[in-house]
Amino acid sequence: MRTINKFVKVKTLAEAYELNQKRSNVVLGGFMWLKMGNQAIQTAIDLSGLGLDQIEENDEGFQIGSMCTLRDLERHEGLDEYFQGAVREAVHHIVGVQFRNGATVGGSVFGRYGFSDVLTCLMALDCQVELYQRGIVPLKEFAQMKHDNDILMRVLIKKDGRKISYQSQRHAKTDFPVIAVAVARKENQFFVSVGARPMKAGVIEKSGWLPASSRSDREIEALADWAKDQFIYGSNMRATSEYREHLAYVYIKRGVKEVLGNDH
């Protein structure tokens, strides 16, 4: 059980950043995963008064505030339409509606959890994070950074015409994923993200590739086989590494076929 000595609803990002420099202080986010620990929190930092709970869409892309909930992602019509339902698919299996009404985008992304559906999906898109101190950083780079005391303000997704497919495997409806796979296509460039390996999501790119119509199935299988070999898989109580590797191959192949759409 967590114990909190002091609760502060900050009025500015500067105040939040200053408070967060002390290691015993913690940004709450949605407090859905944090509450599972037992570490004492000296000062809990609440960002809910900073207007970071909006999803803004324009011709260039989407700006998603860190305090937006996973339910906000699930229900946003613009995200759903532009990304062919993939963002909704990535979040609507996560526990239940009540949980998704509390869990935040910022908490999911900043945590860089190995089981994160959200991180896996976003890694396959042209996505950046906006940090208070460091500024704008590509998500692929951010995912590899060590955890620090910066403040995640927004997630930025560019509209670059990508088609994307998201799939995951679970033993039970509300369980963590055994494997999570996102495949995106921008013209003849493919992006494959695999998470829950059970390590955090990584992404690879394959450029200059499109299947020939006469042998597309063989080429897609070869691409899926190559792509799954670019990742490392581990074993835990949910699955063996071999099983995860096989699932990754199956879902990458399905994802490639889906994003090819009418071209295949």
TrEMBL record:
Signal sequence bounds: none
The UniProt record lists the keyword Ubl conjugation: no
InterPro entries per record: CO_DH_flav_C (IPR005107), CO_DH_flav_C_dom_sf (IPR036683), Diverse_Substr_Oxidored (IPR051312), FAD-bd_PCMH (IPR016166), FAD-bd_PCMH-like_sf (IPR036318), FAD-bd_PCMH_sub2 (IPR016169), Mopterin_DH_FAD-bd (IPR002346)
Annotated ranges, domain FAD-binding PCMH-type: 1-162
Keyword ATP-binding: no
Pfam family, one: FAD_binding_5
Keywords, in A-Z order: FAD, Flavoprotein, Oxidoreductase
PANTHER family: XANTHINE DEHYDROGENASE SUBUNIT C-RELATED (PTHR42659)
Protein name (record): Molybdopterin dehydrogenase
Provenance organism: Acetobacterium fimetarium
